Prior knowledge:
Layout: H1 2-5, E1 10-19, E2 22-32, E3 37-41, H2 48-56, E4 63-68, E5 71-72, E6 80-84, H3 95-104, H4 109-113, H5 116-129, H6 145-157, E7 163-167, H7 175-192, E8 195-199, H8 203-209, E9 212-217, E10 220-221, E11 235-241, H9 256-270, E12 276-277, E13 282-283
Parallel strand pairs: 3-8, 3-9, 6-7, 7-8, 10-12, 11-13
Antiparallel strand pairs: 1-2, 1-4, 4-5, 9-11
Helix pairs in contact: 3-5, 3-6, 5-6
Amino acid sequence: MQTFQNEYLLYLENVTKAYGRKTVLNDIDLAVREHEFCTVVGPSGCGKSTLLRLILGQERASGGQLLMQGRPIQTPGPDRGIVYQRYSLFPHLSILDNILLGKRLGLPFFKALGGKKADREEAMHYLDSVQLADHAHKYPHQLSGGMQQRVAIAQALIMRPRILMMDEPFGALDPGTREMMQILILELWERHRMTIFFVTHDLEEAVFLGTRILVLSQFYTHERDDAPGVTMGARIVADYPLQRDKAPSTTLKATAQFGQFIQKIRAEGFDPEYLQQARSFNLNHPDSFITFADS
């Protein structure tokens, strides 16, 4: 069994998270390979951000196992980076120094003192990758919201995480800037060969960006439910592979097929009247599985 688990960068089996008597996540089963772009959608309050915190190691699961490269996830580590909707840049530091600070905080003191030229060159490399090299010596208040979010992405990239976690990173941006950032993150994902775990409330964004979409929902039925509609925490109710073009174009969003798939996702995960039975979930991705630990 261990050999099977080691095939994956990230492996979750029977993962449950409860706060007191309230179960938020119930028997989450997930296997993710290197270089996947997983988008995660689901109703508000279904536990999407909780799932991110478990993978980051910020919280401990109530049950089940979480493995990163075959080893248990117990604490946060540099192999997992995070970008939030609210970017937190130090206002008294330049953009370049904000990037450098993220790298140096992760180093022992004596190492942080050395290699300053190499560190600056590396920071400039990542600022260039998010198209901000010309703004390196400006301060956060001199940049737009979209530019500040690009700085936050560069902060995460310089740590070279195996998995980049993104929690509603474009939610506060205007539509035009958001679309520009979508194209940028796809280019960075391809260039840096990252694995991305991307939480969003925007179904259009999720389907456009991902190579795989995970639908997390508390709306389903199960044999152990006491009554129809009563659930024991959110599960992955759908898991679909998505086609990824080499040169992504936003014109894809206007196609009928794109819109129809979004409606399907909306019904499966967001409609409280559309209650799938747990054994009938659309787990169409070749690596998806379900264990029914509590059946």
